[in-house]
Structure formats: structure tokens, C-alpha cells
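Researcher: Before we compare anything, I want clean individual predictions. No alignment, no superposition, just each chain on its own. First chain goes here; please echo the sequence and then give the C-alpha cells.
Model: Echoing the first chain and its structure:
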Amino acid sequence: MSLQNNVLLTVAEGATGWELIEKSFWPMVEGAIKFTIPLTLISFTLGLIIALITAVMRLSNSKILRAPAIIYVSAIRGTPLLVQLFIVFYGMPSIGLTIDPFPSAVIAFSLNVGAYASEIIRASISSIPKGQWEAGYSVGMTYRTTLRRIILPQASRVSIPPLSNSFISLVKDTSLASLILVAELFRRAQEIAARTYEFMIIYVEAAVLYWVVCFLLSIGQEALERRLDRYIAK
């Protein structure tokens, strides 16, 4: 029997009330540290890379570049995240490609974040006055150099609040990974609840843990926004 199952069985042995909360706390925190947080960080980082590439493709004058970006964003935004997870984990083996639960979750979440974040980045870039582009061209910069040195630094500040919200939402969305056997926070809560039959206590405890993580992230978001505001003329 695995160490995880031993811990869960220990939790299940006659514990009720506060005793149950105390015994179930660390298994759920362990799930958050080992899976929920890494899954969030990896997926969001890869998603931002995908989002930036997609946003630039959508802003391109080339139809060859715009078309696949538009189709990708439309497909991801038009289908549920849970369906996307199931396609990657349960659907891929039918075409001979079997992926473990954690990498499957990373792929699905990254693609999902990439589509939504690309629209945020695209809107942020579009919000920069055209005069900034002209200023770059006037000193001999190319399109790529102007985008990298003038436009993206300004657009990044505009995109911080909505991207931070997406990051916080992703923390909560990782609970869906429990359905493809990733032993993250909510999966641990499900296993403990199934053994103890104390569904209300365990699920409320899981909700509080998610809330604490999101609350701490929101504090970090506010601190980052205040820091960026220091560089803006008032």
C-alpha cells in the first residue's frame, strides 16, 4: 500500500470534527504543494508563451499567420476546459499517444490559458497609441525591434491585472485535474471524504485552502501593480 493511502486510511480511522480537519489538513496541503502549485506555475508559464506567439500572429497582416491563430482561439474558447482535459488524457490513447495524468493536465491547461491570455495580450498591444510605433520607425527600428523594445514593455503593464486574474482562476481550475487522476488538493479531498463520509467538513476545508492560496496571490498582484505604478507619470 502506498504512503499516500496509508495517510488517508489514518485520516479515516474514527476522526470527526476538528480532529478530522487536523488530520486531513496536511494531506491536502501536500497535494497543493506537489501538484496544484507546480501545475499552475508550469501551465501558466507555457500558456503565456503560447499566448504571446498567438497574439502576434493575430496582429499580423498575413492571412496565413492569422488564420490558424483565429481557429485555435475560437476552438479553445468555444469548448469546455473539462472536455479539453478528457480529449488529451482519455482521447489521445485511441490514436496511439498515451500521456500520464500530470503532463496531460499541463498540456490542456497551457493550451487553455494560451487562448484566453492571447486575447488579453492582443488587446493590450492594440491599446498602445500608433504614435509609439511611428516613433520606433522614425529612429530606424524594425517592426520586431519596435514591438520588443517599445510596445511590449508598455503593453505588459496594461495586461498585468487581467493576466493576474487569469492566473488566480487557473489555481481554481486545477481542481478539474482530479478527474484525470492527478493527486492535487481537491483529489486528496475527494479521497479523504470518500473514506470518512464527512463530505461537508472536507470540502469546506478544501475550499478554504483554495481561498487562502488565491488571497495570497491577490496580495502579490496588488503589490506588483503598485510597483509598476511608480513608473507611470501622474
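Researcher: Okay. Second chain, same rules.
Model: Second chain and its structure:
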Amino acid sequence: MNKDIIKKFKYIVFTLLAIWTFNCKSSRSLGSGEANLNLSTKQVIRENLKRSPDFKTLSTRIKIDMDDGKSSKAYTINLRMEKDKQILLTSTPISVVKALITPDRVRFYNKLDRTYFDGGYTYLSEVLGTELDFSKVQNLLLGEALYNLKDDSYKSFIHENKYVLQPRRQQEIIEIFYLLNPSYFKIESQQLTQPYLSRHLQIDYLQYQEVNKQTLPERIKVIALEEDEELKVGLEYRGVSLNADLRFPFKIPSGYDEIKL
């Protein structure tokens, strides 16, 4: 497969899995607050789940900075989300690249090279190194655990005044760690490591905020390592609207060449 196509797709994957920061007048950044380091594992998970965001739709504009060690890029996209149903990404100010993610499909097209992709999550899962679906993508965007904390048995301990959660039985092919803030119990870092493949994905939620009584990420930093390659992603969301009536128009133009992966 063409290496440029692989790199392009990796950028898309890590962008989709990392972008979620907000900066608007109706928001309030969360401070550290009073820490509570005396909870059991079940209590920590319960407090985290209580703070899961609840909304119907979201729209925002995102400034993205990427650095792969050889070059850096900065661009802006518009994001629209209908929770649990679809995510639409559009380049701005000119709509050159457009992507639509739904529970069963991943689609995008590029007007510059007249190409498109229309398929499932298989290749995206291979790039990330773990089984990927719409729910996991959405969880990462919302600052939620990649793997539902109710679906496994976890143990916890304190490290540098943070709660650390990890499965009681780590998988052989992938190790998972979650770091949670002890005052408002949102995830501060998600770390997935595949030692045998020399892969590591770290998503740090540097700041949370309240938007319309919902706790959402404000600033995010992503580091993706694979052998000697490193990708860094920084994101800033500007202007957010919750629960507005949104449209999700998407149609692949005729005459475009399909990207085969």
C-alpha cells in the first residue's frame, strides 16, 4: 500500500480519536477542587460514570496542530455530532475534505486529489492497534474511557495524587491505564500500550470545563508512538453549541477514485 496513503489515514485516525476541546463564553473551566483519595475502585468508577455528558447534538470549530517530527501542519475543521449516531467533519474555510462517521461506516472524500474512501472500521482498528468502533471513537472524543468501565473488573491505586485504574487482568496484546482526577473524577489520561508491536497511544485531557451543565474536555494533547515514529496532536475548540437542530449533509461526488485499503 502507498505509504503516503497510510500516513494520511493515520492522521485522520488520530485526529478523530483525539479532538475534543472547547472554548466559549458559556463555558467554565474546572479547577482542581478538593481531592478525595479515599474511595474504593467501585466508588471511583461510579463517580466517573455520573459525569458522563448527556446531550443530543454538538457543533464546534477546531484548530488542530500536528507534528510528526519531520513536518508540522495546522488547519481548522468544523465538527458536528449527533450523539450515538453520526459525526461529520468538514475542512474550513473551504470545504475540501469531508468525512462522515456512523456506527457501521467510515466515509470521506478529498476534492484536491478527487479520491474517496467508503468502508468499515477494520483498517482504522489496525492503525490504532485495537478493535475500534463508533462507540470507542465517541468515548474518546467526550473524554470517556475507551473501554466501558462497566464491562470489566478493575483495580485502582494512587499515583502522584491521582487515581489509576487498570483491568485486573491485562490483555496479553494490549495494556490499558486510566488516570482520573480525584476531585471531579474525569479521565486525565488514557494510555494504551502494545509492547510487542512497540506501539503506545497516550491521550491527555489537560483541562475540562462545564458547558450547559455538561462536563466536557477543554484542552487535549495526543502522543502516538510506533517504533521510531512519533505523532503529536494539539487541539483547540472554538465556539461550541449544544442541542441545536443540525443537518449532516454528505454525498461522495461522482467521478472520484476509491482508495482501496
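Researcher: What stands out in the second chain?
Model: The radius of gyration is 18 Å. Additionally, The helical segments are 3-18, 41-50, 122-128, 134-141.
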